Amino acid sequence: MNFPFYIARRYLFSKKSTNAINVISGISVLGVAVATMALVVTLSVFNGFSDLVASFFTAFDPQLKIVPVEGKTAPADDPALMAIKALPEVDVATECVEDQALAVYGGRQTMVTVKGVDDNFDQLTHIREILYGEGTFELHAADLHYGILGIRLAEQLGTGVYYNEPLKIYAPRREGQLDMSDPADGFIEDELFSPNVVFEVMQSKYDLNYILTSIGFARRIFDQQGMLSSLELRLKPGCNFESAKEKVRQAAGDKYRVMDRYEQQDDTFRIMKIEKLIAYIFLTFILMVACFNIIGSLSMLIIDKKDDVVTLRNLGANDRQISQIFLFEGRMISAIGAVIGIMAGLLLCWLQQTYGIISLGSSEGAFVINAYPVSVHPTDVVIVFVTVLAVGFLSVWYPVRYTLGENKKSKK
């Protein structure tokens, strides 16, 4: 058996001559455990919110989205895009034209994002699952084009789920000179009619800004005949996603960028990752403060065991072995605190997942969910454990070296 570890284990669990040392050691373990538990729970809550946001996006965003690297649009008959559509892994391919326009209804106006899509958009996404109203998913009928508004956009324009009058859409002309005597001539005007439904993604980016309509309407009002701003794909069930994505990327070449759902919402998830990182850094600082208890505990233990140190030296123990005894002591305090903290954190996460102990608000239904979401990622647990051990190990090195050195000098 490792001699320093054996002595350190005896020191940790045996009763000291001064009872305060036992108390401080217990407080040290408790402090490390609480800080560790806070790290596990906080990171898991951030994971829960990230997974929740991702679940909202899946109802509207495609599995893969191909956009031009340069410019806003590309020819719909580009050979690279045609090759992508022909890939055996592709189940549904939808051409889209998306741009900014001005929407006017009943004296109210606002800037909107008009997204024109093919009729198979409901096969590409889960759009039907987030529609509200008496109508159904429909983009056009004969010469009439329908506009499905985000629910918050419908509130802002005052259209409601069903609007009696047509919704006027204005987009600037892409070619020609603006006639200052007739500014209205610089815009293309068209009308959208109500399909008796609105959609709700539960994300303001979509609900407050987007109008879904037919791709024919979007190409006409934005003067993008024969063009597309993105090609959106759904892969066949059972195919390997990463392998299929790589095939699409190879077919797209350097002219197009291929994005999965997370890459399509890169800004949102980057912000959430930064917030999670900042929370991790702040809680690590709290952990460092908690480790000061270990420093105090070790310093008092070294003073309490100074006679034992002399005895061990007389029995042949060298300075390195004696230092290792107290280093092992501090490391065991950190390790025990880390294990207890992780177990307590996982227990709290399970209780929150199962029973929703901590709610988001007093009014049920006021939020998308009633309780804080929690998602435990094994990699986070490993990172927390390594962090606690690293901080604990570093915190015990200096007091052991310094205190033993001072005791050695005083003996001389």
What structural class is derived from the secondary structure elements? alpha+beta
> What would the principal axes of the Cα set say about the shape?
elongated
- Could you report the average pLDDT, rounded to the nearest whole number? 85
> Main β-sheet, in a few words?
11 strands, mixed
Taking Cα atoms only, what radius of gyration do you get, to the nearest Å?
32 Å
Instruction: Estimate the strand proportion.
Output: 15-25%
Number of helices: 13
Instruction: Report the span from N to C terminus.
Output: 32 Å
As a percent range, the share of helical residues equals 40-55%
Please mark out the parts with pLDDT under 50 across 5 or more consecutive residues, or reply none. Answer: none
- What is the tally of beta strands? 15
Order of helices and strands: HHEEHEEHEEEEHEEEHEHEEHEHHHHH
Summed up, what is this model?
With 412 residues, the chain is of the alpha+beta class.
Description:
The protein has 412 residues and is an alpha+beta fold. Helix content is 52%, strand content 18%. It contains 13 helices and 15 strands. Strands 1, 3, 4, 5, 8, 9, 10, 11, 12, 14 and 15 form an eleven-stranded mixed β-sheet that branches. Strands 2-13 form a two-stranded antiparallel ribbon. Helix 2 packs antiparallel against helix 13 and helix 10 crosses helix 12. The longest helix is centred in the N-terminal third of the chain and has 39 residues. The radius of gyration is 32 Å and the shape is elongated. The relative contact order is 0.19.
